[in-house]
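Renewal narrative, Specific Aim 1. Our central claim is that a sequence can be written position by position from structural information alone. The example that follows is taken directly from our test logs and has not been curated for this report. It begins with the structure tokens describing the chain, in the order in which they were read.
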């Protein structure tokens, strides 16, 4: 952040940020509420797919708390680890409770990676900009990548089915953990109806994040089209998931400056939009401080 301020100049950044229109906060709040509810439902659905009791209300409450923790502690995953631990402490199936959170987060990050790759490869704007930087992102390469991913998915499904028909290891503890993980992944994404729920929920949640990014830009009166903002958002969101900063601060702004500069736009504007986005998601997570409650350990762990 300090390097960006030094490069762009503090006055230009302040000039970009001081135009923030607070009336957009209401729309951001509504999007944020829907976002947390959808994320909580995805966790609730994943846990239930693994035969772990987790009510939607409990998932919603714990997700809000985890979101707030992720906003204030380094790494961006401490809140998820905390909600996994809290759920495991209340559950008789500790390993599966942790696994449900891992799978739920994986579902979302996989969708984000796929969208970002698709935007970079198939967006005419990004394709031209990256071609100017001598980066080969041709359509043929993209199609080969899709074919390769499809083949890997088919192989993975075949291995899961083969694994489920084989006897479960009982004496080898690492193998037992692998067995639990494979069964959990299979139950979370199979049969096809569960896979559809995972993909659709993750896609809608990702749309809500992009919508929040658009709201941040509109609050700053950015004159870019909505389509341009949509193709700018995924690389910034992807930068946030790298667990080395607090809630993505710094990396997200650096990615914004780079994206805006790559497309021939004012990088200070990109940083301002990223800062506004970061502030919005922090404000949306604040209700989590009111939702903490002590964990009730009402069942002995079985694993």
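The sequence written for that structure reads:
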């Amino acid at each position: 952040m300090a390097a960006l301020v030094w490069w762009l100049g503090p006055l230009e950044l302040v000039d970009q940020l001081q135009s923030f229109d607070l009336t957009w906060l209401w729309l951001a709040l509504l999007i944020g509420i829907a976002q947390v509810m959808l994320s909580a439902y995805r966790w609730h659905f994943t846990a239930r797919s693994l035969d772990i009791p987790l009510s939607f209300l409990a998932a919603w409450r714990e997700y809000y708390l985890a979101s707030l923790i992720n906003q204030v502690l380094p790494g961006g995953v401490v809140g998820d680890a905390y909600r996994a631990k809290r759920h495991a402490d209340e559950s008789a199936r500790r390993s599966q409770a942790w696994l449900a959170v891992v799978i739920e987060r994986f579902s979302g990050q996989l969708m984000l990676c796929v969208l970002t790759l698709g935007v970079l490869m198939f967006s005419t704007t990004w394709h031209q900009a990256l071609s100017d930087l001598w980066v080969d992102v041709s359509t043929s390469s993209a199609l080969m990548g899709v074919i390769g991913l499809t083949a890997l998915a088919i192989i993975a499904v075949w291995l899961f089915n083969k694994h489920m028909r084989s006897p479960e290891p009982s004496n080898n503890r690492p193998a037992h953990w692998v067995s639990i993980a494979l069964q959990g992944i299979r139950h979370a994404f199979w049969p096809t109806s569960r896979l559809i729920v995972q993909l659709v929920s993750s896609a809608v949640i990702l749309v809500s994040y992009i919508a929040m990014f658009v709201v941040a830009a509109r609050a700053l009166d950015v004159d870019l089209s909505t389509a341009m903002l949509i193709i700018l958002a995924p690389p910034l969101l992807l930068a946030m998931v790298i667990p080395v900063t607090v809630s993505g601060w710094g990396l997200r702004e650096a990615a914004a400056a780079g994206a805006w500069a790559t497309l021939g736009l004012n990088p200070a504007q990109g940083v301002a939009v990223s800062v506004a986005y970061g502030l919005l998601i922090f404000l949306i997570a604040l209700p989590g401080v009111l939702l903490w409650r002590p964990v009730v350990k009402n069942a002995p762990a079985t694993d």
